[in-house]
Amino acid sequence: ARLGHRDREPAGGGRVFRRTQEIAAEELAGRTFLNMNRLHALEARRGCSLDAFSADGRPVRVGSGEMLFVFDKWGGLREYRAVGRAQLVEHGPDRRVARTISGESLLIEGSGEMLLVTAPAGGEARLDSTDSEITAQVIELFPGSQNIFAAGGVKLLLKAREESGGSAVGFFSGRQPVMAVSGRLSYERESD
C-alpha cells in the first residue's frame, strides 16, 4: 500500500509540484477522531518506508518494521514512531548521505523539536554523520538547536577532517580521529 502527498509551490513559484512525500508498507490502517471525519492516527505495518523532507528541505528516508503517525485535530503531526530496526537516512545539499540514524525505535514528538533513538536489546543506537559517530543506549537529537544528548555506554568518534587547515595542533586539531567513551554525552551548540 502507498500513500503520497505532494507539496505545492507557493503562488508565483516556477514548478507546480515542489516535492513528494510518500509512505509505503504492506498494510496501512487509519483511525479518525470520534465524531469527526479527520484522520487521528495512521499505522503502517511490515516493510515500512517513509520518504519525506527535513525542516530545511533535505530528502529523508526512514525504514522500519512498523510506523505510527498520530495527528492533532487540525491535521498537524503530534507524534511519529518508527519501530523495529528503524533507520533514518538524511541527504545533504549535494545529495550524498549526510547522516544516518539507527536503532530499535525512532520517536519524534510535536513538530520535530526532538528525535529520540533507542537501542535494541543488547545493541546500540547509532548516529553517523560526516564528522562524527555516536553509539549509545539512548540518543536525543534536537534539530533546531543541533544539541545532542546520549546515555548508556556512550562511544563518540570525532572523524578526521581532510580540510583541517590552519595552525591548530593537538588533541582536537581535526587531523586525527578522536575517540571518547563515557556513561553520558551532552553536546550543546553555542548560540550567538
Provide a descriptive summary of the structure in words:
This protein is mostly beta strands and 192 residues long. The protein contains no helices and 13 strands. The chain has strands spanning 2-8, 17-24, 27-32, 39-53, 59-71, 77-91, 97-109, 114-118, 125-129, 132-136, 138-142, 147-158, 178-187. A six-stranded antiparallel barrel has the order 7-8-11-12-10-9. A hairpin with a 5-residue loop joins strand 5 (59-71) and strand 6. Mean pLDDT is 85; it is low at 8-18.
Backbone shape? elongated
Total number of helical segments?
0
Order of helices and strands: EEEEEEEEEEEEE
Strand content: over 45%
- The counted number of beta strands is 13
- Give the neighbour order of strands across the main sheet: 7-8-11-12-10-9
Give the mean pLDDT.
85
Q: Portion of residues in helices?
A: under 10%
* Largest sheet composition: 6 strands, antiparallel, barrel
Q: What's the gyration radius in Å?
A: 19 Å
Low-confidence stretches: 8-18
Secondary-structure content class: mainly beta
Q: How many angstroms separate the termini?
A: 46 Å
List the helices and strands and how they pair.
Elements: E1 2-8, E2 17-24, E3 27-32, E4 39-53, E5 59-71, E6 77-91, E7 97-109, E8 114-118, E9 125-129, E10 132-136, E11 138-142, E12 147-158, E13 178-187
Question: What's the quick description here?
Answer:
By secondary structure, the protein is mainly beta.
